Write the structure tokens for this entry.
Amino acid sequence: MTSAGIIDLTPFAKLLVEGPDAEAFLNYITANKIPKVGRTVITHILTSTGHVYAELTVTRTKEDSFLVITGSGVEMHDLRWLQEQARHGGWKVSLANQTDDLGCLSVAGPKSKQILSKLSLAFEGKFPFFSAKEVRCVCVCVCVCVCVCVCVFKYSSDGSSSFSPATLHLLL
């Protein structure tokens, strides 16, 4: 790929996990360490016997707030399981399904950063893999100004350190 492509990933399930026990809860039920604010991790929910139950992408948006992305076909299945684990463990967390409230576009390829830099100066600086930023994008079209607040995640399935073939996911 020499330029960039865009794909609509809106159907992916988007769950908000918040509360004073959110980090401890997510660390308890997943295999990888939950990241610091502004970072993303791909991890797995484990059963009590250590089997993989589901794969999640977890982004820490605030100290006690996490955006959890899981597959579209397992949205209610994973949400129900998380709710049961929180209730049975007595965790002080709230779980909210944000799937219908948030869109998700993925811009991938060597020129993805260049393209997104036209929307906001935030894309011009460093944007390490597995990082997340809240970015204000302003688009002007036919004298109409639209301000969209997006949370952007950067990660790559092949782990390369270059921007290409990085994927930027914009939650709209």
